[in-house]
Amino acid sequence: MATVMAWPEIEGFNNARKYTSTHPEILNGQSKVTYKCKVKLHGMNHAVQVHSDGSVVCQSRTTILTTQDDNAGFAKWVHANEDAWSGRKNRPPIPIGSGVVIYGEWVGPGIQKGVALAELSKKVFAVFAARIIGEEESLIVNPEHLEVLMHGVDDTYVIPWYQTLMEDILLTVRFDVDWSMPDTTLTLITNQINEMVVNVEKEDPWVKANFGIKGTGEGLVFYPVSKTHEGYTNFSNLTFKAKGEAHKNIKTAKPAQVNAEAAASVDAFVSMVLTEARLEQGAQAVQVIVCRDGSPLYNPKHTGDFVKWISADVQKETKDEMEASHLTWAQIQKLLIEKARQWYLGKAKP
């Protein structure tokens, strides 16, 4: 029986800052971490497991997918190209132990809206990482190495390191974060991050470079690349993301902040965390959206599942904001559930 090899949840700059402060041991004795970043694509987090016997398994973030139990046609697409994935056609088999799981975003028409990716003529798989099956600390994020893994598989792309123009030369963004530094110093870094995110949201450079389409992007994901901080555990602890205004799950003042956003009341907190991006993500996560020609359909029968997902997600992802606001889950639970329920039923109206 195949099992999901889940991709870790990635939080914001302020979450990483707090975690390194309360758990300095995760820095392995070196508070300065070197980062590179990749464009964050607004799609569906999916993966393909390629086992050493040539078998291929598809997954969403939480579920094994099949052609009978699919998500936006991902499993159907993978299995239509199974010979290429397994190495029986167009490329040599993947020469890695017991196999590899390849993570990416399933993107294109009918998957998301309001971004340049929605204008693609077909769905594609954009790869950002891979892990060797059976090796807990394995993590492959170098685009050059991922290109080797993906060679010969049609409609797949590897997301490169993000670059910026410096004196008419494109240079890969690379910078250090010393997590032991005070707020004022770290704010100088978040200012640079926020400027980059604004540029990505204004025009997604990955979509423009690969498809010639101009339009909105989502944000950036920052990967630890210093030798001391390589590997899966370090990645899970130290990676952070920064999203543009339209894609935030929390209404923060800026994409990257040194400290968690605080709300002045229960009403303000619920408004802050129940963003359109979080609500739509919840609807997709419980697979209550059925896409037909790109139009989402909501089923009132799944309202309970949706509210349950939103409640769990807010509890898990907004602990720092709750603490900064001096609130408890018991104080916000009733209003948050009611607002989420109203939103979903509003979408479900004929």
List keywords for this structure.
350 residues, six-stranded mixed β-sheet
Which helices and strands appear, and what pairs or packs with what?
Elements: H1 13-22, E1 32-40, E2 44-51, E3 56-60, E4 64-65, H2 74-80, H3 82-86, E5 99-107, E6 124-132, H4 143-150, E7 156-158, E8 163-166, E9 169-172, E10 174-178, H5 183-202, H6 205-211, E11 219-224, H7 232-238, E12 240-243, H8 266-273, H9 276-285, E13 289-292, E14 295-298, H10 303-317, H11 319-324, H12 329-348
Parallel strand pairs: 6-7
Antiparallel strand pairs: 1-10, 1-11, 2-3, 2-5, 3-4, 5-6, 8-9, 11-12, 13-14
Helix pairs in contact: 8-12, 9-10, 10-12
Polypeptide structure, described:
The protein has 350 residues and is α+β, with helices and mostly antiparallel strands. It has 12 helices and 14 strands. The strands form 4 sheets. It has a 6-stranded mixed β-sheet with strand order 4-3-2-5-6-7. The chain has a 4-stranded antiparallel β-sheet with strand order 10-1-11-12. A hairpin with a 4-residue loop joins strand 2 and strand 3. Helix 8 packs across helix 12. The longest helix has 20 residues. 40% of the residues are buried. The mean pLDDT is 89.
